[in-house]
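Exercise: predict the fold of this chain.
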Amino acid sequence: MYEYDFGDGWEHDIKVEDVLVAQEGQTYPTCIGGERACPPEDCGGIWGYEEFLAAVADPDPEEHDSLLEWAGSEFEPDRFDLDGVNRALAAAPRRRSASRV
């Protein structure tokens, strides 16, 4: 279990299905799949995200346009951006274990 953003209580279950031998030329860690878009940062946890999705799905509410602007002008909750996740993983700082220093 991994908890992201303790204040909002985002909990994730991570399941290691297999451990493979590293391949030459492959960047690690690598994401091989996922579901749905990542919620916008600081959206208020699960409950805030549900309210955000409802407001974004309905163009009538007064806050619809401002929420879309805040989220980056476009938000597709069912779209998982595998390439974007792997770009973020590749750009993340790496930690070295004591045995590798």
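Check your answer against the key: Residues 20 and 28 are 12 Å apart (CA to CA).
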